[in-house]
Design a protein that fits this description.
mainly alpha, Arc Repressor Mutant, subunit A, about 55% helix, globular
């Protein structure tokens, strides 16, 4: 996977070309909400992404400036993925998707477990909190 191949100049189409596959927003979730940074951490997600798809998506996210990839200071064979401003800007949309998904499937849940309720109580505060954490985690 390389740079996005725009099918049109429609903003929705362009957005879907970038984040519309089955896995990308889950990786965004794992980076921003769950603080995951390494390949091994992403593999442990509940959705059981396969290794080849994960590698492909991480490369796609890097090429399209959604993550930066650096060698870990403590392990030269490990890479650390950090969010860019472009990824962080997706977080409010991700919150809306979580709320929408929960509205139409009440069995859904989040980690941390209180996130949905916090979003329902004070969405703006939660968004600001996670954006600040994500910005601090950038390398």
């Amino acid at each position: 996977m390389g740079k996005i191949n725009k099918r049109s100049n429609c903003p929705i189409g362009i957005s879907l070309d970038l984040i519309g596959d089955r896995w990308t927003l889950l990786i965004v979730r794992d980076i921003i909400i769950r603080g995951k940074r390494s390949y091994g951490e992403f593999l442990k997600s509940d959705e059981n992404i396969s290794t080849n798809i994960l590698a492909s998506r991480l490369q796609f996210l890097e090429v399209n400036n959604l993550v930066t990839k650096k060698i870990a200071a403590d392990n030269k064979s490990k890479f650390i993925y950090s969010p860019t401003d472009k990824m962080i800007a997706l977080f409010p949309t991700l919150c809306e998707l979580m709320l929408w998904g929960n509205k139409y499937d009440s069995d859904s849940y989040t980690e941390p477990s209180n996130l949905l309720q916090e979003l329902k109580d004070d969405k703006k505060k939660v968004i600001e909190k996670y954006i600040l954490l994500a910005q601090k985690s950038k390398q």
